[in-house]
Each structure stands twice: as C-alpha cells, then as structure tokens.
Design a protein that fits this description.
Pfam families: DUF2254. Keywords: Membrane, Transmembrane, Transmembrane helix. The protein folds into two domains: 165 residues, no CATH class; 266 residues, no CATH class. It contains 16 helices and eight strands. A hairpin with a 5-residue loop joins strand 7 and strand 8. The longest helix is centred in the first third of the chain and has 36 residues. The two termini are 52 Å apart.
Length: 448
C-alpha cells in the first residue's frame, strides 16, 4: 500500500504530554507570559495610583516614593536600562553553558538545561521588571501649564522592589549556574527523569513480553514522513482500531527513527483475518487515522521514549572514556546511575503495552523499549569503548550483579547471563594487566 501524505490536522497530536514537554524545554514561554502579566499589572497599579492620588493614607504615603516627576522618570529609566543589560548578561551566560554542555558532555544534554525552571524564572523576573518599568515610565507626567502632573507612587515603588529582586536573582542565578555545570548534578537530574518514567510505565498495565506477529495478509502501515517517533496517542489509536474494527500493532517503539514509506505497524481484523475485502479508500482511511495519532519530531524526548534518558547518561559515560577526554571517573559515576535505572527497570518488569476495548479484546499493541534492549545498549557500548580501563570494566561487572540482585523473580536471568558472557569475552580480549584480567573474569563468572 502506498503511503498517504499526512493531513494538516495536527490537533490530535497535541496531547497534554507533548505540549507539556514542549513548554518545559523552551526558554521563551515562561518569560513571555511574565512580560504580558507585568504589563497588565503595571496598568492596574497605575490605575490604582490614579484612584488613590488624592486620598492616599499618610502612613502608606510615607512608605512610597516621594520624589517628583523628573526623579521618578530618572529612576524608571535607570531600572529599565540596568535590567535589560542584566538580562543580556544572563542570556549570554546561558548560551555559554549550553555550548560547554554540548561539547564537554553530550549534545543531548541540552534539553536538561533548556528545561531548567530556575533559568526560566530568572529570565522571567528580569524581563518582567524591564517591561513593568517601561509601562510605568509612560504614565509619568510633568506639571506643565494647564496639565496636571502625575507620579504613580505605588507603581514606582513596586518597580524599585522589582529592581532589588533582580539583583538578588542575578546572584542566585550565578550560584545555580555553577552547580548546573557539575556533571554529577546533570547525571542525577537525567536519572530522576528515567526513574519517573519507569514508575509511570510500571503502573500502566501488566507488561507484555512481545508484540504479536502480524498474520498473513495483514495491512502494512507505512510512515508518511521521516523523523523520530515521539509519541503514540493511545486513545486515538484505540478509537481508530474500533472505528475500522481491526487490531493494530505498532512494531517500532517511541524513539525510533522512521523513514517515509517504510512499514512501522500492521493491522488485521479481529480473529486474525486479513482485510481482503477492503477498498483502497478504507485502507487509506486507516493509514490516515493511525498517522494522525502519531507525533513525529526531529529529536528524541522523554515523553514516551524510556530509552532517551538512559541514552543521555550513556553518552556522558562513553565520551568520558574517549581519548580526547580520558576521564574514567566520570564514566564510573555514570555507570552507577545506569545501574540504578536498569535495576528499577528489572524490578518493575517493563514490557510492551496492550490496549483493550470495552469488551476486553486486545485492540492495540504498542512496542516499547524493553529491559533486554536497554541492557544490551549499555553493555555493548561500554564493552566496545571502555574495557581497557580496569575501573570501568570492574564497574560494568558490578552493574550486572546489582541488576541481578534486583530481579528476585529471575525474569531477566537469561538476558543477564548473555551479557555476562559478552563482558567476559570483552575482558578476555582487552589489554588489561593479566592479574586484573584474571580477577575480573573470576568476578564476572561468580553469581551474586
């Protein structure tokens, strides 16, 4: 079946998870909302100043700005000029931080910085102070002939307080930035994202060990555009399966790169029958409905891709043991976080997803990255790049033992055994000292 072109209707793709992830990883939404709110607040406060201009209580008036229009205008101009300068400095430091993180650790860690709420709130504070001061500045009038002068005392005082808050915010931002540049902090944040995803996925349903194979004659559903599969809208897929009275199986998990025209899913009628009597319009309609339920993107994210946070940590580990960096300590620390994540995955029994209709019949099968896939990813990368360092090799052996301890039901025993054999072969062929090699081989063969 030829792939149909995607429609322009993308509302079904804008799920709360996609929107939340987009807002969380962009630098502009929170500052923009703060600027709009500050302009509205400035208008309200100056209106309040107009209302209380002649009836200001003496006790309150003594606490507010007491200068004339020239002094108020000079103060507002100084606040506006200084805050936009500080904002430029803050943005420059953020860009430098992003560049360092990309070159030193991994370009996929940029999402960790751009999703930092402290950075969002700091930029929002600076820009809202600037917008507030400009809005108040335009309301200040000199007493000139018949026109009555006006100084919004409450608004000017509030601008002064916001300026003080920006000074405090700048100091806190510099301290926060120095902490964020530490690789240990970045690893912890990414690991926490992974643990959150494991906990959420583990509570969804009982794990499915494999996606069923499509029966003969099943309809192939092909990608209508190239890019990463970011998210599958599960309610929309279930609705499409019920509408066309079929079972849908997505063979590719979120995070895979789909190439336009290649099959990524299959559909068949209940009972395993192939939809032989379907017209091309029905087949194209199913293709369109499934395509509309998928969100494609130019990069991976952690909306449904449980392997992405693990890949971020693994990238740091592999780059740390590259000849250009040569930092095995960071690699060992990263392997500790990888062990934590894989152990949690072994306990939760993560598997593929199956969705049923109101009568309990399986309608949609969703492929997910499984424990076996992720463990193989970690072990293969470290075996390829890091087995010539005794600390890294020993930490990888310990990782397998720790994961096995967290699999009391022995669901993953076969996968762990296979990876032990792979690590043993890598150690045997490494350039380690013979004594270290013998010790590691004995430790790798021992059961926890």
């Amino acid at each position: 079946m030829e792939p149909t072109r995607p429609s322009r209707h993308i509302a079904s793709n804008l799920t709360p998870g996609v929107i939340r992830d987009y807002v969380r990883t962009q630098l502009w939404p929170v500052p923009l909302a703060a600027v709009i709110a500050s302009v509205a607040l400035a208008q309200c406060v100056t209106w309040l100043d107009h209302l209380l201009d002649d009836d200001m209580p003496p006790a309150l008036s003594a606490l507010l700005f007491g200068g004339g229009a020239p002094a108020a205008r000079s103060l507002m101009e100084a606040i506006a000029a200084s805050t936009i300068t500080v904002t430029s400095l803050t943005f420059s430091l953020t860009v430098v931080t992003l560049q360092l993180a990309s070159s030193q650790y991994s370009p996929r860690l940029l999402r960790t910085f751009t999703s930092d709420r402290f950075v969002h709130n700091t930029l929002a504070l600076f820009l809202s102070t600037f917008a507030f001061a400009l809005t108040v500045l335009r309301t200040i009038r000199d007493e000139d002939g018949p026109s009555t002068g006006f100084v919004p005392e409450i608004a000017v005082t509030l601008s002064f307080l916001l300026a003080l808050a920006t000074v405090v915010g700048l100091v806190l931002f510099l301290g926060h930035l120095s902490r964020q540049l530490r690789v240990e902090r970045m690893l912890v944040e990414v690991r926490n994202d992974f643990m959150t995803m494991v906990g959420g996925a583990g509570s969804e349903s009982e794990p499915l060990h494999h996606v069923p194979e499509a029966p003969p004659g099943a309809v192939e559903l092909r990608a209508t555009t190239s890019g990463f599969l970011v998210q599958a809208n599960e309610p929309a897929l279930l609705k499409a399966a019920e509408q066309f009275n079929v079972t849908i199986a997505l063979d590719r998990p979120p995070g895979d790169f789909l190439v336009e025209g290649t099959p990524f899913a299959h559909a068949w009628q209940l009972g395993g029958d192939s939809p032989d009597g379907w017209s091309s319009e029905q087949t194209d309609g199913l293709q369109q409905a499934v395509g509309d339920a998928l969100t494609m993107g130019f990069e991976r994210n952690s909306v449904q891709d449980i392997g992405f946070p693990l890949q971020q940590i693994l990238d740091v580990a592999v780059r740390a043991i590259s000849p250009s960096v040569n930092d095995p300590t960071t690699c060992v620390h990263a392997l500790g976080h990888l062990s934590t994540g894989l152990s949690a995955l072994a306990r939760e029994g993560q598997g593929h997803r199956v969705m049923t209709d109101g009568q309990g019949r399986a309608r949609v099968f969703l492929a997910r990255r499984t424990f076996a896939t992720l463990l193989d990813l970690v072990v293969s990368q470290i075996c390829t790049y890091g087995m010539d360092d005794p600390r890294v090799a020993r930490r990888l052996v310990e990782l397998l033992s720790e994961v096995e301890h967290n699999d009391p039901a022995h669901r993953q025993a076969e996968q762990i055994r296979r990876q032990r054999h792979r690590v043993s072969r890598a150690i045997a062929g490494s350039q380690l000292d013979p004594v270290d090699r013998q010790d590691l081989l004995a430790e790798c063969a021992a059961k926890p």
